[in-house]
Fold:
Amino acid sequence: MTTPSVPLLQVKNLRIEFPTRRGILVAVDDISFEIAAGEVLGVVGESGAGKSLTGAAVIGLLEPPGRIAGGEIIFNGKRIDNLGFEDIRKIRGREIGAIFQDPLTSLNPLYTIGRQLTETIETHLALTHTQARTRAIELLEEVGIPAAAKRIDHYPHQFSGGMRQRVVISLALAANPKLIIADEPTTALDVSIQAQIITLLKKLGREHGTAVMLITHDMGVIAETADRVAVMYAGRIAEIGPVAEVIHHPQHPYTIGLMGAIPSVGDNHERLSQIDGSMPRLTAIPAGCAFNPRCTRVNDVANHRCTIERPSLLPAGKTRAACWLHDRLGQQSTAINQHTVTV
Amino acid sequence: MSSAKTLLEVCDVAKEFDVSRPWLNRVLEGQDKQILKAVDGVSFTINRGETLALVGESGCGKSTVARLVCGLYTPSRGSIVFDGVDMAKVASDELRGLRKRFQMIFQDPYASLNPRWRVGKIIAEPIVSHGLATTRAELKARVGQLLTQVGLSPLDADKFPHEFSGGQRQRISIARALSSNPEFLVCDEPTSALDVSVQAQILNLMKDLQREFGLTYLFISHNLAVVSHIATRVGVMYLGRLVEIADTRRIFTRPLHPYTQMLQSAIPDLKMTGKQRTPVAGEVPNPLNPPTGCAFHPRCPHANERCRRERPNMIEHPESGQVACHAVEEGRIDIKIAA
Amino acid sequence: MVDLMRRFFDSDIWHSFKRNPLVIAATIAALICLFAASLAPWIAPHNPFDLKTLNLLDAFSPPAWIAAGKSEFLLGTDDQGRDVLSTIMHGSRVSLVVGICAVFLSMVIGITLGLISGYVGGALDAFIMRVADIQLSFPAILIALLIDGVARAVIAKENHDQVAVYVLIFAIAASGWVQYARTVRGSTLVERNKEYVQAARVIGRRSLAIMFSHVLPNVMGPVMVLATLHVGTAIITEATLSFLGVGVPPTQPSLGTLIRVGNDFLFSGEWWITVFPGLALVILVLSINIIGDWLRDALNPKLR
Structure:
């Protein structure tokens, strides 16, 4: 069914809405991307950009009243966005694992981690209880928990923050999933622990051939971990491409501003480049390009196009950017209506 | 050590918290009192017009130091001297006069503004409290001026905090802090709850204000990249103690203490995409039960018997600043020079 | 003011209210009770306390729709020929005054102690909370009875009727403050550690100013819910005490007094004398409770 050319995960024109009594809020608006087997796709953006919702939609954990209002999510050649609760639950955990920001809430405080691990393993794999326990110990060893055979019978509160996140990772890996959705996996951790967890994620991805959708606001984490990166802004993808290209040669004015805004060690003490204003609220997303009120180059495009017509992802340098500056054909028409992204 | 340049002198300050269970439970379960030494003998000075940053991982006591300096906690030991006046010995009416000379900016812009107060009232609170305006018109004009200074509109005074984004709220917080014309601002992780692009705005604003009003900052952060951008000097804290303090340049190019070196190597580096970080093993120990000797010894690659036994004191380093490490003192560490 | 109105009609509370027919019905019922009670001297068909208008020949007349009933006494009359509808209206007035005043007094005591307890902490907090614990281990009725008993012993018989209502209000308030104190203390403990309170401390505001201008407005939400529900409970407590004969004197009867008086005639067939005041009590308390429950849900963001 799957051939190497077909990506593991395809998201096509995904749209996520929140109906409220003041009208429908579009939190994720027509985004498309793909993740190949074994690839790490970083999804970066400011809070409210829709990155976590995208991740939640993929594993079918969108909290009501949020709903998928359009588009398709195709995993392993099969459409999963319209599956029932039971069917998506079978895929979740078995084929798609999840790691969340706060390791404490992902673990049940009343059960030992061993019980939680073996239950997950037994649910998804045909193993006996003893085999499942052996596998659980192997998993804990793999994620770097010392004295795993002893610590397996401990409760979550007996682990430190970094160790807990390792346990959560082992849970996500329990059934050997093909894809892991990692939503801010290092945000709650201290810098020194962050480095440990990132190294671990990279190593596991490589060894297991697991694809990772790494959602974070921290460009540094993306830079160290991801193969490709999608930069989200106001529910849309502003730019997507290989990580080195996006970081060193950003093409979208937002990405350019974002890169300049990140302080880095060793620069002189001059001002950081800043993007004035803030991301629009979902209730007030401007027409045309969502970034146009903050964009310094809005006047470089003729005929106020940025404030009228929404740009789709256009080839720009070695990445793709949703910006009319890169509309080389200079067409005024809306003929370009291409959403699928292949890099 | 104190000189005309010195604005704040913190001398051997400690803060202990009693985190024991209630008395009855303790007696029934036969437990001893548990004392958390959040800050354990920290000394530093801040000169006028400079920015001293304190960095460290969660639980290292950096926020407690900020709150001690602001008078939100009383130190268990040691003294805090602001512009030659010992804060513990000053009379209460004089303390009120001192209070308007320093203010604080907090981490969470969603919690630091009273949700039921209008922005104008929030910003006016220090002015009213210290009697700095005589008429309503003067007060209104001052609030408008402050809002303009932080990049908002005087019309925003009539709105409520929830009508603003995180970055805008932090600007309101800064306006409130500036309203009593302070000389000294204590900033407790002022940008860590903000997005990067907004963080840049706030950091730039803070630098502009510092230049304009000659402000002195004590800047608390866990983000070394931010610190390297804003600070003139940096103090590194670990488990309630300062382990190294020096000029920003020296800290980042020639970190001496093994912990500083570890933090330095853990900074994600955007410029070298795909570079392998060298993660340091281990985690911060439980502060209720800190290791003997040097608190960092269980994670330190250079630790020996003396480190396990004897707590190192701060020693002046010939090049710049001070460091508390036996290995550095004995010359056991070859100092890495960062690229 | 216009701005305030606009904000109210745009608020989530108003929208939640509009979509809830039961709450609308309860509000209407409560408003009718409030209206009838507060305007009783002017709109009641008779004045049941004006002896000149009373005629013993009218006594025990059944409700108007029963054959023997008289059209001028819609809900019938009692043993002294008083119009039951009018006595209910006057009785609700006493019940509501006692209930609302008692709740208000409870609130003032409870909020003040709760704020101090939560904000100051330490030994004072421990002391106030232990007093609250002791208070909670006595049933509310028992405390009210105790206070009433003490008052009867201290105050001379002839003056007792005049102060009876105040004693009752105090007795009910004294048994209800603990809930407020606990709720406010809990919220205060949370608010106290928020950064806006710390900011006020850095500014140099005094503790009392911080407690009442910063903390208090932010802990009032749950208190308002509690107060609404408490009005219902207080009215019931008042009725119970009056039913037991230790409440308001028969000269200014409350709903509880009416029920007690009517109770004597229940088995002799004059059921209307006690059933209608009882019904009025049920409607009043039920509608208040429905509003209180809804308010609790509407103010709780987690349930929205």
Chain A has twelve helices and twelve strands.
